[in-house]
Amino acid sequence: MNSANNESRIIVDLVKVSKTYHPDIHAVSDVSLSVNRGEILFLTGRSGAGKTTILHLLNRIESPDKGVVEVAGQDLGKLSQGKMQKLRRSIGVAYQDFKLLPDRSVAQNIAIAMEVTYTRPSTIRTRTKDILQRLGLADKYHTPTAELSRGEQQRVAIARAVAGRPQLILTDEPTGNLDHETTTLVMDLLSHCNKKGATIIIATHDESIYRQTDHRVIELRAGRIVNGNPVPDDSRRHNPATTEETDNADT
Amino acid sequence: MLNFISAVFSHTLRNIFQTWSSQLLTVLTIILSVLIFSFFYLLYTNVLHVSRLLDNNLRLIVYLNDEPGKAMQEEYRDKILKFDTVEKIVFVSRKEAFKRFARQLKENRDVLKDMPTDFLPPSIEIYPVHSLDALTRIKRFSDYLETLPGVLKVQYGREWVARFYSFVKLLRIVVVLSGVLLILTTTFVVGHTIRLTLLSRQRELELLRLVGASNNYIRMPFFLEGALQGLVGSAGGIAALYLLFNWISLRFAVSSTSFLPQFTFFSLPVIVAIIAISTLLCGFGSFSSTRKALRL
């Protein structure tokens, strides 16, 4: 019973995962890492440490050469295409390349994440406005993303990642192009999502956002964990019952 | 479900507005193909109609050496029916033939005054079943009838039937070829346009995959896009043919060529069938092209 509880508590589980890029770049080497539901985890390290690769592995954008990647109890290596698509709908991602559609408006870019889950158009509009308000982009609702600054584009990518109320949010350098004030807005939004039950993994080298945090911080170097606890301690665990209740209330 | 439909429709409309120029080219190509196919098909159906009209007057006259008795008439009837089913068989005696001839001469019937009433040969009039097949089989029928005992000569519009038969055959080939053209156009051209659209929207498709869009969510708008192209293109093609048909009908009406039979346009079920088939062809052309391009 206890072991079953442990398993359902864990949302991300990497077991001895390795990934090598051609010709011989060891992006991730033998990494084991678990993340509890409702946790905020900071993946830190210099460029090339393997942070982005781990985020890519968690969404099966990349597949590991060795090891097992499990998300929400499902082994990504064994998931069918259909099941992976379903799982991706519950994972919000904001990568460094933003993946925005430049000819579409800010609202349209954010809406995509909700449209694939067939959310009602009225709900999409309300949520989009709310998130943009929180990120200080309310006046950019109709603006094509091509006309935005890098920092604004980054915030739109984060807005899209959280808009679908996913259970897992993966953000890669979410404050990379932001000033102190907007960094606070972004971190507040992520914290708000976390309080609502989302698990958040933040890959960053911006020390200011994790320096005084209570949350778990893991440092990577040359594809290996060199600092931090790869296994969560129970005090950081978010109550799954509370998470579920909050999720239901939201939808 | 309602949200799925609304999402798919809004995507489809967005796609169409974003790539309207290539959409227009595709629709024009479909209009042209449907116009070519339906033009020949209309010609073919009208020729069939004409053949049916002519067929009503078509008969084979088998002239006999001697007047057949009751038993002989039955024997002829059996042999004729053994070869083919026919609409009607009429035995015309020498006297009946004379009477008919006199009726045809009308006021000039006096010329027959001194003639014996049995100078014309007896004959059998065979009315084939009213169908184009009967018309095309008539030559073989005639050849068979000539082999029957006591037959002097078999008469029918031999040359005309042969030419008509060749014409119908040629028309049938043209209809089939234009049908193939229609299928090729709809599947290949529509598929190609959709593939180009896919290439130009690679970024969006990548994003859709990233946020977990299902295969149906990605493909349905393309299916609808193709189907819509087919619907508009085929309706346009039929409308263009109708205009052409009206123009031709008007031209013939002016020159008052009353000997020409009345041409008819497609019936509503045929129009609906052409539009429905084109729509489905275009839809599935784009659907399969999306499947290949996205490797879904």
Describe the model.
The complex is a heterodimer of chains A (251) and B (296). Chain A has 8 helices and 10 strands. Chain A has one domain (37-60, 80-250): P-loop containing nucleotide triphosphate hydrolases (Rossmann fold, 3-Layer(aba) Sandwich), CATH 3.40.50.300. Chain A has 251 residues and is of the alpha/beta class. In chain A, strand 4 (66-71) and strand 5 form a beta hairpin. The two termini of chain A are 30 Å apart. The model of chain A is unreliable at 237-251 (pLDDT under 50). Chain B is an alpha+beta fold and 296 residues long. Chain B has 2 domains: 2-52 and 170-294, no CATH class; 59-155, Alpha-Beta Plaits, CATH 3.30.70.3040. Chain B has a 4-stranded antiparallel β-sheet with strand order 2-3-1-4, with helices on both faces. In chain B, helix 6 (158-200) packs parallel to helix 9 (268-294) and helix 8 packs antiparallel against helix 9 (268-294). The interface between A and B is medium-sized, with 27 and 19 residues.
Structure at a glance:
Chain A is of the alpha/beta class and 251 residues long. Chain A is 35% helix and 25% strand. Chain A is globular and about 45 Å long.
Shape of chain B: elongated
End-to-end separation of chain B in angstroms reads: 22 Å
Strand residues, percent of chain B: 5-15%
Sheet having the most strands of chain B: 4 strands, antiparallel
Per CATH, the class of chain A reads Alpha Beta
Over the alpha carbons, how many angstroms does the gyration radius of chain B reach? Answer: 30 Å
Helix content of chain A: 25-40%
Oligomer: heterodimer
Mean pLDDT of chain A: 88
CATH superfamily of chain A: P-loop containing nucleotide triphosphate hydrolases
Strand arrangement, largest sheet of chain A? 6-7-8-3-9-10
Please give the number of β-strands of chain A.
10
The share of residues in extended strands of chain A comes to 15-25%
- The tally of beta strands of chain B, per DSSP, is 4
Describe the global form of chain A.
globular
Ends apart, CA distance between termini of chain A = 30 Å
